[in-house]
Amino acid sequence: MSDAILCRFEAARSIVRDAADLAMSMRPASGGPTGTQKSAQDWLTEADGAVEALISTRIGALFPQDGFQGEEEGRTRTGRLRWVVDPIDGTSNFARGRNRWCVSLGLLEDDLPVAGIIQAPALNETYTAVRGRGAFLNGRPIHASPVDDTRSAMIEMGWSNRVPAGVFEDKVATMLRLGAMPRSGGSGALALADVACGRLDGYLEMVINIWDVAAALVILDEAGARTSPFVRDGGLERGITILAAAPRIADDLAAALDVPLA
Prior knowledge:
single chain; alpha+beta; Fructose-1,6-Bisphosphatase, Chain A, domain 1; D-Maltodextrin-Binding Protein, domain 2; 2 domains; 8-stranded mixed sheet; 5-stranded mixed sheet; 28% strand
């Protein structure tokens, strides 16, 4: 990986730490929820805008030639290198003072995810990866699960109000028929990170956006997980399906859930 990417990655680690500290300082007390409800189970808090603005400003000052895209403001700058941020992934958890949320920042070179940082400050966890250099949790190497039987698997599925009625239930029923244990934790980025480090054996979400997965895609690749072809199938421009899985059950899981793998 080029020196330019590594330089950006090191700068981004510091920026994400500051952004996570800001988010923690703005986290509501337990209870709630606190914030604005955009649609069913889709929340927006003051911290979402503040964290995104901090990251955008700092990235823009250091690398003005780079593109930038955020969940809240959209694509505000263009460039061959593009930063993509989800300022608070898991906002429904954050809005209730829960711990399972994160700041997610990914870097793309053209259409290729090349670096990613996912920081979950309430959990004291930071996932990082640069393409070709491995994936890490708090500085220690991580790898996808060695599970080779779906009857031993733990699979998470994300919920979205953009999915037709019945689809969530049907996919969870398929997981149960495989003998897997379903879960749902409220943060797509952290669920994908859990697949990368082996805490989960798979994650499925039927409609998810690039800001939710930009950092996770390179972390998953570097950890040896398998994923559906998110970028190839149009995920840079619209919300689409993602499946990430431990390599030894990936084919069986993809076939049962009717999701192609890359």
